[in-house]
Amino acid sequence: MSVSLHSDVTGQPRHLKLRLSLLFGALFVPNAIYLSFFPLWLERGGLDPVQISTLLTIPVFVRLVTTPIFTHLADRARERTHVLIAIGAMSLLFASLLVFPMGYWSLVAVVTGLAVFWSPQVPIADSIALSGVRRHGLDYSSVRIWGSVMFLLSSVTAGLIVQRTSAANAAPLIACGFAVIFCATFVAPRLGRKRQPQALMAAGAGALRSPRVLLILIATGLIQASHGLMYNFGSIYWQSLGVSSQDVGFLWAVPVFAEIVLFKFYSRVFGDWRPESVLALAGAVGILRWILFSQAGVLGFGFYTLAAIQSLHGLTFGATYLAQQTFLAHAVPEEQAGAAQGLGVSLHGIIMLLVMFASGPLYANFGGSSFLAMTAVSGAGIAVAFWFAASQRRWIESKSRSAP
User: Residue 114's closest CA among 168, 178, 24?
Assistant: First the structure.
């Protein structure tokens, strides 16, 4: 009997864990550089805050429209990895165009094209990894963690390069990051089509009918959207305070490290907490974080104080995300889990879009003080979390009354 070079005798692709680790690590290389230094590259090119905000918001909008299309296409393909290779090639093409001089509207076209093919990459990689979990008992966290590790390393390395050269090198670095992704797609495992395709529309109806699911998704979306102003103007704000390009890279790395720590100890610390309690804490820490952000220039915060503020990201983002996922894992039937996740992407994307569109005028008019507006977004998340808690209590009471 012959054995495929791509699989062992059990049918599991050879080196499945290693190949997925390499894929996830590669996927977050350009992400780190783009988030940390693309705004600085745009500012160096003479763009104003509103133009920068628009360009940085485009991928958020595009993600809502194109990601479901490509993930659906990947599910129907013989191999989802083949779709990943194709969009990896196209994203590399558009990223390479960034190194050429162009005007604002040409830049809009290139960023839009890049976002079309970049946005679906992580969801498709997730679908490949989760197939490995179901079919071969893969530990998802053991491969996904390499995305966070490479984000850290890439952010710091790019910071060193930009510090020793200039922000003009951000575009070539981003293009190199997409070249890394393209190479990694060729080693991504081939697992074949899903054995039991999900009836997405039928599953979605149940999720949409649940007020509890909608409320917790809105609450988490608001708390996470409060980061929108920082995503758009964090690097620019820090450099206005005298932070070096190298240290900007470190300030973007600190939140990722905080997430890793939070993910590792979440069950031990918050395992007995109700979701609304975790969200209330995350929102409250968010309010503190954005107040401190807004006063960094007034109070003369240095790098280490800013790094301490950034470490709060473990709670403001990581705890929010895990509280949502923990609730959905228990409240949504398995056959509706995909629809619930898709609903979350849509709701979160809409809320984030609104915040990111507003961030340009806010920062242009108020500078660092504009971060105070994010306390209102975090506060709204807390309010919806309490609304969710009331809905949860009513649901439990109704179940108790209907019990025999």
Answer: 178
